[in-house]
Fold this protein.
Amino acid sequence: MRVLSVYILNLILLPFVVETSAQTDTKKLDAYFSRNIEKAKIIGLQVASIGHGELVFHGSYGEKMLHTGDTVNDSTLFLMASCTKPVTSLGIMKLYDQGKLDLDDDINDYLPFNISNPNFPKEKITFRMLLAHTSSLRDNYTVYDSLYTLPEGGDSPLELQQYIRDYFTEGGKFYSPTKNFAVEKPGKSYEYCNMGYALLGALLEQISGMSFSDYMHQEIFQPLHMNNSYWFLKEIPHQNIARPHKIEPEKEPQVLNHYGFPSTATDYAQVLKLMLNMGKIDDVTFLDEATVEEFLKIQYPEVNKYQAIAWNYNEFDAFIYKIIMPRYLFMRKLPAHSGYDPGVETYVVFDPRKQRGVIILINSPIIQWRGARIYHKMIRKLFSVAKKSG
């Protein structure tokens, strides 16, 4: 009878012990990140960790704007920089999943104007090429950098369709046959291209019959329960946004104005959950499993052996990272994407085989070696959290 009583008591106490342990772990993690943002000179930070395809930890640290005491919380929006590209590609892949386009279709079959590389006017450019940065289209940084809405901040006044026409068609005010196009054939060389993804947004509008923002809200954000994600600042019903900061050596950080496409770590976790659960969110199928497999497949291995659709498998394949994080040389390559824009730095990475993922958003780019080391230790810490969750 005494043994039975002890057994029953253990059953009663077990949930309390588990909950207490989880609270203790969270407190330790909060202390870890709070301590390390000070060391790395990070102003504001959001993180999330996914284990077994589910969100297992998220945290928010630091300030939205330096020296204000206005702290980051889990609903604070961070500018996503180029980590928007996997989200843009998700919009295209949803249309593909619905049979509204084929990845190898000529994009001119969907546009009201013609786009071609003037060096190869008869060679078609496809959705697959745009998604994998092999389209032979190039970023003309003289144009591209001039169109940031800094220092005034706010949404771009340019209308997407007209901007694309002006950039890629002869006679347009941003057109250059030499700076906007590569000398290699479409599909035969790799060059990371922001403008290629802007073009994908214009194509999405033509196919869906909706504005890019409306389509993403209705067809992507709402079904994935991404209630804190926006393309335009004017759409945000509050002021809970982390301001970007310009960081320079030996200078006081400069607060920059907002300039668009913000989200949160917990919202972005929905995108990683979708990838890790092979197209399902909360046991509801959003994409066919075969579509997710295509998403994660290397698209042009003879051109770039690491580039999938939006995601790439060598995000830290640079000299500096091999120095500050030598164990990277021995790590398995994982699909990832990073983002760098004025005043912000973002990173997402996941392991489809082990169903783990990590998201880091900061509102002050890291420019010191020590900070970079700490930043990558944070990534490893979040992966260890995901591992322990199972």
About this structure: The domain at 22-388 is CATH 3.40.710.10 (Beta-lactamase). The chain has eleven helices and eleven strands. Residues 6-21 have pLDDT under 50 and may be disordered.
